[in-house]
Amino acid sequence: MNDNVNVTPAPSAAAAPSAPSAPAVATPAAEQTKQATPGTPSARRQNRRGGRRRSGERREPAAPASPEAAAPASPEAAAQEGAAKPQPRRTHPLLEQLAGWYPQLFGAQFLPLKRGIFHDLIAAHGEAIDKDALKLALSIHTRSTRYLNAVAQGMKRHDLQGQPVEDMAPEHVHHALLEVFRRRKPRDGEDLTATLRRRIAQAFEASGLTREAYDALVRGRDDKTNALLDEAFAEVAERDAKAEALARAFEASGATPEQFADMYGMDRRTVTQALARVRRQQQG
């Protein structure tokens, strides 16, 4: 509620002082009727005096500016003026309602929605939700950067109760990654291309698919993106080759993972992860 502000009327501007009248100067009649001959010193003096202001006259001072115009607006007045202007809505009004109903899905942290969530919402709320408005709201929500970030992380899809119900398709993860990095602005010294390549490689490994199967799902028409995908495949293949070589050396050593790591001056966690990587490949 806006507080009433009492404003004291500002004093009116002071009246400008009137200019004093010029003093009367007696002029002999002979001098008034006397005409100056052109070219003479007298005529030149008259010509010079013609463009000047007569002695005794002075320019009237400008009236001082009104205090109301000069004084800055008070914070209260500025706040009232800002409140009078309509503020743009940050999001669709139905999304605000959905966040109140389902804060675990539409609240501070977004979760990927299960396929068919539109019909679930209509079934749950009936005529309380306009279908066209719901389609628009969900379209805005699923295209937001926050939602795409959740999809790019490979999170599962969730139902209205916030329970994970299905895996995210690998192609959806991949395309969300591309869109998120397309919108992202690099920080000082940050190489977004290298970061995106690493994220694509991680998404490929998490999918559990072969290179051929993953490629068939995600490869598009953009040459630059496809080249980045090939680089990610090569990065994964290089890690696989190193892990296989380490696993062969480990088996030949007859040592425990801890002893093997100490023998070659390696980090024990790196050795354990490489051996687990080879085991997953063999089981797949």
What layout of secondary structure does this protein have?
Blueprint: H1 29-33, H2 41-50, H3 67-70, H4 75-84, H5 93-101, H6 103-106, H7 117-125, H8 131-142, H9 145-152, E1 157-158, E2 164-166, H10 170-183, H11 192-207, H12 211-218, H13 223-253, H14 257-263, H15 268-283
Antiparallel strand pairs: 1-2
Helix pairs in contact: 9-10, 10-11, 11-13, 13-15
List the helices and strands in order. Answer: HHHHHHHHHEEHHHHHH
Mean pLDDT across the residues is: 78
Radius of gyration, whole Å = 42 Å
Number of strands: 2
Q: Globular, elongated, flat, extended or rod-shaped: what is the shape?
A: elongated
Low-pLDDT sequence parts: 1-56, 66-73, 75-79, 82-89
Q: What class, by secondary structure content?
A: mainly alpha
Task: Provide a count of the helices.
Answer: 15
Describe the main β-sheet briefly. Answer: 2 strands, antiparallel
Percent range of helical residues: 55-70%
Q: How many angstroms does the end-to-end distance come to?
A: 66 Å
What portion of the residues fall into strands of 2 or more residues? under 5%
With strands numbered from the N-terminus, the spatial order across the biggest sheet is: 1-2
Gist of the model:
The protein is mostly helical and 284 residues long. Helices cover 57% and strands 2% of the residues.
Structure explained in plain terms:
A two-stranded antiparallel ribbon has the order 1-2. The two termini are 66 Å apart. Helix 11 crosses helix 13 (223-253) and helix 13 (223-253) crosses helix 15. The longest helix has 31 residues, at 223-253. It is built from 15 helices and 2 strands. Mean pLDDT is 78; it is low at 1-56, 66-73, 75-79 and 82-89. Among the domains are: 90-168, Orthogonal Bundle (Fertility Inhibition Protein O, Chain: A, Domain 1), CATH 1.10.1710.10; 191-284, no CATH class. The chain is an all-alpha fold. Helix content is 57%, strand content 2%.
